[in-house]
Task: inverse folding
């Protein structure tokens, strides 16, 4: 097996702001596990709050590279048991490696992972579209332009949180876009 680390700077369509930071580029790592012609891929993004930099994640993976490449495993859980103790400083890198192992496992067995887990696509969790902190007008515009999602998560953590909440509640009777669920996300202590 061969481990390869790919690094990308992914530009965001809009600057994304939460209560503690803003970003317009998301640094992203793709972990690739190659087994002959088969490739498994996993992803992790940097996160300053959790001290997960590209350098820290890469260093952790490279430190465990020999162990990863020489590991003998038939299931992702077997690989996890062998390598997890080496990833105490970088759970994000371990997560990307675990995703790559699951992807490779599914490809080895010729089935999607959800089927190997005994699941179906008929009962999958719904995802949300997150609206980062901005001016009220821009936040409402983003809600209006990105219709079709079942859930919208609204980031809060400013001195204007009540105004943001009120503006959203006034828009379309508190249901904007129609029929969706809105969730307010405010970090404790803000």
Result:
């Amino acid at each position: 097996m061969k481990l390869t680390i790919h690094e990308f700077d992914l530009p965001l369509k809009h600057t994304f702001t939460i209560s503690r930071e803003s970003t317009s580029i998301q640094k992203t790592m793709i972990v690739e596990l190659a087994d002959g012609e088969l490739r498994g891929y996993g992803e992790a993004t940097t996160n300053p709050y959790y001290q997960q930099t590209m350098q820290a994640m890469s260093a952790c993976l490279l430190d465990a590279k020999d162990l990863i490449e020489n590991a003998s495993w038939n299931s992702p859980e077997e690989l996890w048991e062998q390598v997890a103790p080496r990833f105490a400083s970088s759970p994000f890198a371990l997560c990307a490696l675990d995703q790559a192992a699951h992807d490779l496992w599914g490809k080895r067995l010729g089935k999607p992972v959800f089927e190997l887990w005994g699941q179906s696509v008929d009962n999958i969790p719904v995802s949300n579209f997150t609206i980062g902190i901005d001016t009220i007008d821009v936040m409402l515009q983003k809600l209006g332009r990105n219709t079709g999602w079942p859930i919208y998560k609204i980031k809060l953590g400013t001195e204007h949180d009540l105004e943001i909440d009120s503006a959203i509640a006034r828009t379309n009777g508190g249901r904007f876009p129609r029929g969706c669920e809105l969730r307010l996300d405010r970090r404790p202590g803000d």
